[in-house]
């Protein structure tokens, strides 16, 4: 999926608007932060399970 305005039009796609870009950015940020929070919990659980 190409979302850069100039490049996407070259391939015949419509780039994301500001709302779509905001949703994509906030989803990526939330997933990254969630990964940072969950990783230590999973590691601690794995250590206790051994």
- Biggest sheet overview: none
Mean pLDDT: 86
Please bin the fraction of helical residues. over 70%
What's the tally of helices? 2
- What is the H-and-E element order? HH
Query: What is the β-strand count?
Result: 0
**Spatial shape:** elongated
Structural class: mainly alpha
| Radius of gyration (Å) | 18 Å
Query: How many domains make up the 3D coordinates?
Result: 1
Would you identify the regions where 5 or more consecutive residues have pLDDT less than 50?
A: none
Distance, first to last CA: 42 Å
How would you concisely characterize the structure shown here?
Helices cover 76% and strands 0% of the residues. By secondary structure, it is an all-alpha fold.
Describe the structure.
Helices cover 76% and strands 0% of the residues. 0% of the residues are buried. The longest helix is centred in the C-terminal third of the chain and has 32 residues, at 18-49. It has one domain. The mean pLDDT is 86. It is mostly helical. The chain has two helices and no strands.
Q: Which characteristics define this entry?
A:
76% helix; single chain; mainly alpha; elongated
Task: Please specify the SSE layout and strand pairing.
Blueprint: H1 5-10, H2 18-49
């Amino acid at each position: 999926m190409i979302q850069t305005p100039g490049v996407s039009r070259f391939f015949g796609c419509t780039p994301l608007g500001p709302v779509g870009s905001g949703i994509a950015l906030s989803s990526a940020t939330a997933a990254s932060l969630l990964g940072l929070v969950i990783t230590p919990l999973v590691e601690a659980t794995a250590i206790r399970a051994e």
